[in-house]
UniProtKB/TrEMBL annotation:
Location(s), subcellular: Cell membrane
A single cellular component GO annotation: plasma membrane
Lineage: Bacteria, Bacillati, Bacillota, Bacilli, Bacillales
Organism: Fontibacillus phaseoli
Entry annotated with the keyword Cell membrane: yes
Domain of life, per lineage: Bacteria
Similarity comment: family membership: Belongs to the TVP38/TMEM64 family.
Keyword terms of this UniProt record: Cell membrane, Membrane, Transmembrane, Transmembrane helix
Annotated TM spans: 21-48, 60-85, 106-124, 144-163, 170-188
Protein name: TVP38/TMEM64 family membrane protein
Topology within the bilayer: Multi-pass membrane protein
Length: 202
């Protein structure tokens, strides 16, 4: 399936002569397809973006495509085709029941964590968010930040394959700094919530 996607995309690029970020006209619809039915891994599009645009611009394009797809799947499954998504993913939701409970409890932070650590499909994360008590605005921010984290990590892992010998120290160190900021924000938020809970029960 990955080879098929790469061949079709390569053919479209050759026929349309699309260059630069105009590639998103092709890859965003593919990201939506991936987000709805999951017929190929999103990593295929990330590799394609990096190959065509270079590491920095390729990761930026992947972030845009992933964020758009994640938002679209959330809105579609929440407001338009909830019953269809529910039937399609019900068995998998049972498998990830404990993560659904974490999503209900931690909301934004659970989405960011699940996007960062590839333990379940991206489309399933979007659907789980749609059926949770997470509201649209918080999901939007968690989707943007979570996709940034996920694609940044994959960029580190794939850049050495696409561009052998590339110095990845800046990319790695900046990502570590990004994770430390997220971790700090999470603990501050948790302490504030715990303090609020104590004041309410006092």
């Amino acid at each position: 399936m990955n080879d098929w996607i790469e061949q079709i995309t390569g053919w479209l690029l050759e026929v349309t002569q699309i260059k630069g970020f105009w590639i998103l006209l092709i890859t965003i619809p593919l990201a939506l397809l991936q987000g709805i039915v999951g017929v190929f891994p999103f990593a295929t599009l990330v590799m394609l973006h990096i190959s065509v645009l270079g590491v920095a611009n390729g990761l930026l394009a992947s972030w845009i495509a992933g964020s758009v797809a994640g938002m679209a799947v959330y809105l579609i499954s929440k407001f338009m085709f909830f019953d269809w998504f529910n039937r399609k993913w019900l068995s998998k939701l049972e498998k990830y029941e404990r993560w659904q409970k974490s999503l209900d409890r931690y909301g934004v932070w659970a989405v960011i964590f699940l996007r960062t650590i590839p333990i379940m499909p991206n489309n399933l994360i979007s659907f789980m968010s749609a059926v949770s008590n997470l509201r649209t605005v918080p999901y939007t921010w968690s989707n943007i930040i979570g996709n940034l984290s996920s694609i940044w990590l994959f960029g580190i892992l794939s850049a050495s394959i696409v561009f052998p010998g590339m110095d990845l120290r800046l990319l790695i160190l900046s990502y570590v700094g990004f994770l430390l900021v997220l971790l700090g924000a999470f603990f501050i938020r948790q302490r504030m919530m715990a303090k609020k809970d104590r004041s309410m029960t006092a």
